[in-house]
Each structure stands twice: as structure tokens, then as C-alpha cells.
Amino acid sequence: MIICDKYVFIHIPKTAGKSVFAFLRSNSGILGRNLNGKVKRVREPEEGYPEYAPENYCSHVPVRWVGRYDTDHYFKTKFSIIRNPWDWYFSYYFYSNVKEARFWQQILDKEFVGGFNQWLVKLLNNEYCCVDPLDYRDFTTIRRLKHMEKFNIGLCTQMFLDYCLAIGLNDIGASDLNQELIDSRLGVNKICKLETLKNDLLSIFKEDNIKLQNEDIPHIQRT
């Protein structure tokens, strides 16, 4: 999450967040709110965790938490980024080093994970819901897997809903999650696509007649 004077960026993991932050920072003279420091990475927040998040910006915070850090957020444009789901899964698998991660391999059986294709099939078939968390850092993964099973959705969709809905998925019944609810409780005003990021992102500021200092969006973390 990055808070500016008129904008709030909600960073869904693996959606070019570092590039967007660099772009926003290069326009700090226009967008305001100390953007010259570093983004501090925090583990994905749970209830009772917000005191560890920086005041102005941190890596991944759901939109429903914005009010805890910014009382003026109701008047601001809140935007996020999505990407092609297949690309997202591919990026998540290799960036998170799933093959070596203790949670996914159940410590004793690395073949339980397999390669990317096997992992994705098992993931979307809810075969990892039976894995017990090994420590408190695994609780977020378990929660996401339970949401996937509950709503019959994929991890990519779970991430989007978890970060961009104004209500938590724990508070929604399986039969209640429909397009009408999503449209009415979506906490972000604008959605950009990674594949057309520059055009989509610049259009947000052009609509508000904001003349940026720099319109170049760097490609960070190319690997």
C-alpha cells in the first residue's frame, strides 16, 4: 500500500508493485506524501497486526485497512493492478520458490509439490488444504487455501478479492459471493492491467488533469 495526497495504491503480490512505487516516487513532487524513502516489506497482515505497518507505505495491505492509516482515504482514488492469471501463477511459483518452500513440500515429501504444472493442478484442486501450517508464517497461506475451497476460486482470484474488497472473505458466506456483491463492495476505484500498465496508469492521472514530472514506468524485477 502506498498513500499519496490524492491516491492510494493497493499492491497485490506479483503485479509490478515495485515498478509502480518507483514511478510514484519519481513523481513525488506532484503526488506528495514522503515518497522518497524505501517501501518497507511486512508479512501479509492479519487482525491485530497493523501496528507493525509503516504510516505512509508498506508492501502489501488490503484496501479494507486503509482507513487505519489514512483518515482522508474516502476522497482519494484507490487503484490496483491485475495481470493474466497464467502469468501470475508462473511468477508466484518461481518468485516464492514453491519447490523449496517448507509449507508446500510438507517437509518430508518434496514430490508432493512437483513442478509448476503439478503444483498448479494440485493447488486448483484444493489438494493443499490438508497441509498443516508449520509455524505462524504459514497461517496466511492456509487462510487463502481455505477461501479457495470455500468459494471455488483460484489463488489469483483469492488474492484480488482479499486485497481489493472492502470486506474480508472470512465475513462472506459461500453463497453470497457474486458479481453484485463484488461490484458493490469493491474498495478500489480503478483497476489497471499489467499488460497495458503505462496506458492504464497514466489515464488515471490524466482524468484528474495531473501533469506528472515523469511518465516512464521502469521495469523492476525483470526475473
Description:
- The protein has helices spanning 17-26, 28-31, 85-95, 102-105, 116-124, 139-151, 155-164, 179-185, 197-207; strands spanning 2-3, 7-10, 77-82, 190-193.
- The chain is α/β, with parallel strands linked by helices and 223 residues long.
- It folds into two domains: 2-82 and 189-207, no CATH class; 85-184, no CATH class.
- It has a four-stranded mixed β-sheet.
- Helix 6 (139-151) packs across helix 7.
- The model has no long low-confidence stretch (mean pLDDT 85).
Q: Mind summarizing the main beta sheet?
A: 4 strands, mixed
Domain tally = 2
Poorly predicted parts: none
How would you classify the quaternary structure? Answer: single chain
Number of strands: 4
Q: Helical element count?
A: 9
Strand-pairing-aware structural class: alpha/beta
Radius of gyration: 18 Å
**Amount of helix:** 25-40%
**Overall body shape:** globular
Mean pLDDT across residues:
85
| Topology pattern, helix = H, strand = E | EEHHEHHHHHHEH
Please give the alpha-carbon distance between the first and last residues: 23 Å
What portion of residues belong to β-strands? 5-15%
Q: How do the strands of the widest beta sheet line up side by side?
A: 1-2-3-4
Task: Summarize the topology.
Blueprint: E1 2-3, E2 7-10, H1 17-26, H2 28-31, E3 77-82, H3 85-95, H4 102-105, H5 116-124, H6 139-151, H7 155-164, H8 179-185, E4 190-193, H9 197-207
Helix pairs in contact: 6-7
